[in-house]
Design goal:
It is a multi-pass membrane protein. The chain is mainly alpha-helical. The chain has 13 helices and two strands.
Amino acid sequence: MGVSQQVGVGAAVPAPTAARPPGGRPTQPRSRRGVMVALMLAPSLVLLAVFVLAPLARGIQMSFYTWDGVAAVMDRVWLENYARVWTDPNFLWALARTVLWWAIHLSLAVGGGLLTAALISEIRWRWAQSLFRGLAFLPHVLSLAVVGVVWSQMYHPTIGLLNGVLDRVGLDALVHPWLGEASTALPAVGIASAWQAYGFYMVIFLASIQAIDPALHEAASIDGAGPWQRFRNVTIPALYNTMSLVIVLAFINALKGFGTVWAMTQGGPDRSSELVAVYAYRQAFGLGDVGAASAAGLSLAVIAVLITMLFNRWRDRRASEG
């Protein structure tokens, strides 16, 4: 029959084999891959639904009712809670203080994290980098309650470290109760919160700095650029996307500044350090007005989402223009 053989009628035809990709393994059917992906995502989706979506839906529902948190019956009032909250001067002042709190967090926590990451990246010894990176990240491991207690002792008017240092260096005129005066309570708590958070941003910035091509720094050094010039002209432009991400994270984290404030001042003195989160907590558990507390919390959440969307749109526009 020549070189090519013909298959007879009774001959067994070999079954077609699965298509093999360049890697050598046969590809799985799409349906099977979809089932595997669904099974892998199922635990996370269940946790998201139980601990995030369900409480959010419950909070939206309670914002349309008056409820003291104990009674078996809730009275529907629709948007009355939102009207009461947005006409309450205490809420408006709490919202303004929340904006100031975010500015403190952004400048100190994010700025401190960026500066610390830049300094650590200049260290040439690996063991020293690891040591200082661990020391800088250590405050972020501490709980907010511990940070509040430690910094409250540092701000103590008589035995505190800050007033003691000021007195020893001859600046005793600046000694005063930092947490006991309305003009300094919020900045003092903001500094403590920024100290606890800056290590988180430092790790993000350091990872991005170490991913920059060393040839860029070498070329800048050959051109005579010093450390500050390399940082300003090479490092900062390369961190544009990372900076955008960190700003969004800082904004979201700053809105959750309840733990440190409550541990140090509980919103005092005279509500001078009361944020929206503290205001909502006081409404719910102090005044028994869960509906107003839900309306205040959801109002803050909507503001956060809107600001984040506007920032992302501005960032995308800048990226497309650049």
